[in-house]
Design goal:
This protein has eight helices and seven strands. By secondary structure, it is α+β, with helices and mostly antiparallel strands.
Length: about 230
């Protein structure tokens, strides 16, 4: 098993970090698609579509064709959740990582390095929720290369964030992850995070039963900074 080390982000990591992040997010799109198709709402909609087309055209084959077209049309819509999220990140904080995380107060960015390559990443910044400002930091942009999962890298990166927050007197760390990122949910729950909220990223996400989970980890003996 290859060894790795956690270190602070450097400018030469820029392309590797952005590529790692994009790949990590996009690989969850198929799982999101399968989840939506398994939902009762989607299955009912497909059944109604099949019945309506069959009744109108008089051929069950046309009903099946309509369902197949609906399934094909749903895939790019579901994938757009991932692609739009990636594009937003690459155009905002991951466009200038040093300014976003290394020069900003109470923020940092780490990478996991193995064999001279960046194989993992995580960031921390003040919580976006105004109610959490001054109380909690937010864990962001966690990603580990597929070939290096199961080696404790995610746990080590998460630990860096928790230690960083505790050292600065914060009482909690918060994060958000999608419902299909089951492995990430298990990781965070194993590190003491508890699910405290659920929301849909958009009206379309709500219609497709796609949800985002909000987690919080309260830190022992943490006090908010002045």
């Amino acid at each position: 098993m290859a060894s790795y080390r956690i270190r602070q982000y450097r400018e030469q990591d820029y392309d590797a970090v952005r590529t790692l992040f994009a790949r990590g997010i996009l690989e969850h799109a198929p799982a999101g698609y399968r989840h939506i198709l398994r939902s009762a709402r989607a299955q009912l909609g497909l059944l109604v579509l099949f019945a309506a087309v069959r009744a109108a055209a008089g051929y069950w084959v046309l009903g099946l064709a309509a369902v197949a077209l609906a399934l094909a049309a749903t895939w790019p819509v579901v994938r757009s959740f991932s692609t739009s999220y990636v594009q937003e990140a690459l155009c905002t904080d991951l466009c200038d990582i040093s300014t976003s995380y290394l020069r900003a107060p109470d923020s940092c960015f780490w990478v996991a390095e193995a064999g001279g390559s960046v194989v993992g990443m995580v960031a921390v910044a003040p919580a976006r929720d105004p109610a959490e400002r001054g109380v909690a930091l937010e864990l962001k942009r966690m990603s580990v290369s597929k070939d290096y999962r199961g080696r404790g890298i995610s746990k080590a990166l998460c630990g860096e964030v928790l230690r960083f927050a505790r050292a600065r007197g914060y009482g909690a760390v918060v994060l958000s992850t999608s419902m299909v990122q089951v492995a990430a949910q298990r990781l965070y729950e194993g590190q003491g995070f508890k699910k405290v909220g659920t929301f849909s990223p958009s009206l379309l996400g709500s219609l497709l039963c796609f949800q985002i989970f909000h987690y919080r980890c309260d830190l022992p003996s943490g006090t908010a900074p002045p």
